């Protein structure tokens, strides 16, 4: 009788565990079922898409109280993949970004994501219950899942993608991108809740309808730069209001400084006068030549670019592989449309192969 009772108790506990697991992972499995391979390149690096069906909480990650890179990574994994151990690595990366108008008068944001290690790109559709629809991009090598459909483990790793995006645009026309810098990592200590650049991107896409709202939101938090690098954020909206959000490297307190600017690479917009092209400039950054290449196309046209010119600006700033430079090897180039929100994605300099992802498709069976 006692053995029967013990067996019943064990069976009941197992059943409870299974029910709890299914309850947590049902929408996560739904999310994994939406993963699709968009391109089929011979080198094995491709564009994928995914629609997020589960409810993530940026606030839960913030509430974990992380104070360093590992704490942030652990909290992110716990949010995306509770109960399952998954390794996630954070990169150091470069980039080039600009804001302009196209021939139809639409505001656009051009973006190159540069990183010396090759990666596939996950285009992430998010439809938060309380927030704005968005489309954004995550680097799958950060999640150890370049072949997103290659195994169950890889599919599960992709669940962290909405919390690991490097750029994106929402249905209100707010676009945002992160770019690396050469200064010491920011670690503000003003007694406010901490966020990282990835959390800032997700919060802005989910919650902000203008660049000013993005600035106001990010200013409420202490910024922590993770993985031993420093970063700044470029934000633009449908009205053409583009600004770079930075943390002053000359001040030990690292106060947030917001600078209106049309383009940026891996140098401080607030200290643009202290930066020279084709060289490193200490804490002030590098990559000014890529900024110059873009502006040489943008300025003569008064900031209004034909479709080919918009891509030409990104081509001019794109970089070839260089194992000695972390900000080499353009992994993806994107034209974000802020007026009719969409992402037009080119992977790894396949310039004739444009893949379009309108925000209005978020929530549809793609």
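-> sequence recovered:
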């Amino acid at each position: 009788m006692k053995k029967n009772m013990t067996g019943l108790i064990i069976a009941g506990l197992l059943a409870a565990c299974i029910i709890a697991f299914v309850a947590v992972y049902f929408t996560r499995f739904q999310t994994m079922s939406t993963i699709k391979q968009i391109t089929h390149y011979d080198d094995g690096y491709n564009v994928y898409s995914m629609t997020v069906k589960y409810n993530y909480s940026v606030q839960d990650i913030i509430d974990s109280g992380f104070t360093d890179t590992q704490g942030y990574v652990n909290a992110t994994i716990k949010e995306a993949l509770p109960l399952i151990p998954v390794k996630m690595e954070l990169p150091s990366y470069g980039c080039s970004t600009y804001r302009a108008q196209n021939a139809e008068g639409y505001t656009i944001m051009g973006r190159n994501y540069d990183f010396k290690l090759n990666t596939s790109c996950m285009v992430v559709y998010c439809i938060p219950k309380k927030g704005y629809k968005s489309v954004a991009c995550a680097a799958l090598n950060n999640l150890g899942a370049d072949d997103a459909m290659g195994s169950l483990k890889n599919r599960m790793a992709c669940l962290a993608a909405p919390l690991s995006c490097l750029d994106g645009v929402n249905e209100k026309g707010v676009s945002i991108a992160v770019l690396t810098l050469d200064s010491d990592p920011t670690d503000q200590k003003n007694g406010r809740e901490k966020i990282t650049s990835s959390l800032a991107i997700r919060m802005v896409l989910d919650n902000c309808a203008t660049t000013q709202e993005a600035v106001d939101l990010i200013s409420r938090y202490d910024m922590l730069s993770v993985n031993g690098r420093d970063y700044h954020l470029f934000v633009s909206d449908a009205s053409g209001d583009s600004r770079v959000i930075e943390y002053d490297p000359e001040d030990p307190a690292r106060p947030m400084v917001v600078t209106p600017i049309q383009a940026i690479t891996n140098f401080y917009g607030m200290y643009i006068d202290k930066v020279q092209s084709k060289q490193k400039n200490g804490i002030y950054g590098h990559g000014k030549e890529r900024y110059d290449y873009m502006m040489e196309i943008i300025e003569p046209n008064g900031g209004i670019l034909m479709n080919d010119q918009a891509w030409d600006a990104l081509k001019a700033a794109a970089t070839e592989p260089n194992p000695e430079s972390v900000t080499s090897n353009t992994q993806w180039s994107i034209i974000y449309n802020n007026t009719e929100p969409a992402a037009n994605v080119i992977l790894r300099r396949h310039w004739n192969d444009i893949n379009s992802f309108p925000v209005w498709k978020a929530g549809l069976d793609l």
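The two ends are 55 Å apart (CA to CA).
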